[in-house]
Amino acid sequence: MEGAAIFSVLLALLCSRIMTVLTAQSMDDKLWCVCENANTCEDGVCTGDMCFLTLVYGQLVRGCFDKEHREQCYVPRMPGLHAECCVTNYCNNSTAPVEREEPKEPDSVIVLVAVPLLVLLVLSISVCGLVLWMRSRRSHQPLPEHEASMIKVPSGGDPTYGDIFDEFCTSGSGTGLPYLVQRTMARQISLVECVGKGRYGEVWRGTWMGESVAVKIFSSRDEQSWFRETEIYNTVQLRHENILGFIASDMTSKNSSTQLWLVTHFHELGSLYDFLQYSTLDPEGCLRMCLSVASGLVHLHTEILSTQGKPAIAHRDLKSRNILVKRNGQCCIADLGLAVIHSQSNDYLDVGTNPRVGTKRYMAPEVLDESIRVDVFESYKQTDIWALGLVLWEITRRTIVNGIVEEYRLPFFDVVPSDPSFEEMKKVVCVDQYRPCLHNRLHSHPILSTIAKIMKECWFQSPSARLTALRVRKTLAKLDQDQDGSTDKLKLDV
Question: Could you list the residue ranges that cross the membrane (predicted)?
Fold first, then answer.
């Protein structure tokens, strides 16, 4: 009698549980999750297909999202960094790691068959109940000590964001931090000062873990640029010393308005445009700077064929304002909001949906006269080369040769107004076929004369006649080697 009663209770509980699951599946119910420090929080809870928990050096973020982001749940662990997902109600109500479990899709066939089985196969149901009970016990057991310690900060002190960046990048998981870690980290940043403004929004210097980071805050009207940069940085192996280092991307709320953040390495010298206003260069410094820009562009333009490779990328808005100067005198290319992606191996061309056009002053002739072949990726690379020639011209103007240097000016400053129209640029570049003037002093120095020759070959009216980024880099690299050889020989003679 006692056994029958226990069996009846067990059966009743099991029936209740199965019917609850079936009802939830048929209604496509969402999970209830604890929500903390996330944008979607409302009264401390949210609903979604999965709950998540991230912990970055003591800063906790909990919330929920839909199943489309499930791939973000499975990220490498490292000391001080933790990101997990789970698929039961309020399963993220903890600061300890939760059990990883692959979210399961509802199966309509199982739903239809389960009810008859419940009536006809009591023995099978009892066995299932026992299995579920054992599984439930196992899921509530604490993790082994070595697993739980994964979220503790190492006793040696916090690593820099550069260390964290290096750890995830070398793992081959992408160019930036995992998505859930990005969101946690972005909420730890304190904005310090605004260091730049433009049509896209503002750039702020922020601090995280005692170090400076750059926070580009996009205006709502330029959401497509933010989305495009985020998409490229999160899906492509872009890491290179001459490409701006990406850290995180996040969407935050402030004063009832949405802010779109892109967090990158901070370079205190600012953009190349800013730097050239107040600084001059010697020929060797000019060469180093030009070579670094060309190297960054080569990395963008090159498709890397491997398991963790990258497609080819054309920038489409290369200019001195979108290039940053590093403390070692090299440059790194930034602002990928207009970039075009191409994979020859997968046979696709992704132009994006951004309605914004490039900067008219830097537009190539085929863009201005609308003869560019928009379905051919090579066309976009050739427009980058045109703009590269103009950037090299800006750098050489500020290079001292025989005691002579020119004031900083934008390309075509002498023939168009400060904010030229599309038609004004078209007349100058396409109809008049005007090119920036090259000062006579450039031809009196071997470095500057070579760079001047490169510029001219970047400005051919015919796109196919222009140099490639690889050819520009090889020419400048050989020039740099020759200069090093001459310096070494001079030291030996002395």
Answer: 109-133
Structure tokens at 253: 């709320």
Shortest CA distance to 225 belongs to which of 358, 119, 343, 328? 358
Distances (CA, A) of 158 to 56, 205, 208, 243: 11, 21, 11, 26
Query: Positive or negative CA dihedral for 38, 39, 45, 48?
Result: negative
Domain that holds residue 114: 13-129
Q: Tokens at residue 440, please?
A: 């006579």
Catalytic residue among 49, 222, 317, 384: 317
Q: How many C-beta atoms lie closer than 10 Å to residue 352's C-beta?
A: 18
**Do residues 463 and 382 both lie within one domain?**
yes
381 appears as a binding residue in the annotation: no
Catalytic status, residue 222: no
* 361-397 burial: b if 16+ Cβ within 10 Å, else e: bbbbbbbbeeebeeeebebbbbbbbbbbbbbbbbbbb
Q: How far apart are CA 244 and CA 271, in angstroms?
A: 11
Q: Are residues 281 and 204 in the same domain?
A: no
Tell me which residue has tokens 């839909």: 66
Q: Which two tokens stand for residue 219?
A: 């205006």
pLDDT tens, N- to C-terminus, the chain (494 residues): 555 545 555 555 555 555 554 444 444 568 888 888 766 566 778 888 888 887 766 677 788 877 666 656 655 555 566 677 888 888 888 765 554 444 444 444 444 555 555 555 556 666 556 655 555 554 444 434 333 333 333 334 455 555 655 555 444 334 556 667 777 777 788 899 999 887 778 999 999 878 899 999 988 778 888 988 888 887 777 889 999 999 888 887 766 677 899 999 999 999 999 999 999 999 999 999 999 999 999 999 999 887 777 899 999 999 999 999 999 999 999 999 899 999 988 788 999 887 778 999 999 999 999 999 999 999 999 999 999 999 999 999 999 999 999 999 999 999 999 999 999 999 999 999 999 999 999 999 999 999 999 999 999 999 999 999 999 999 999 999 988 766 554 444 44
In this structure, what CATH number is given to the domain that contains residue 213? 3.30.200.20
For residues 313 and 317, give the distance between their C-alpha atoms in angstroms, rounded to a whole number.
Answer: 12
Distance between CA atoms of residues 238 and 233, nearest Å: 7
Q: Which of 244, 265, 286 is the last residue of a domain?
A: 265
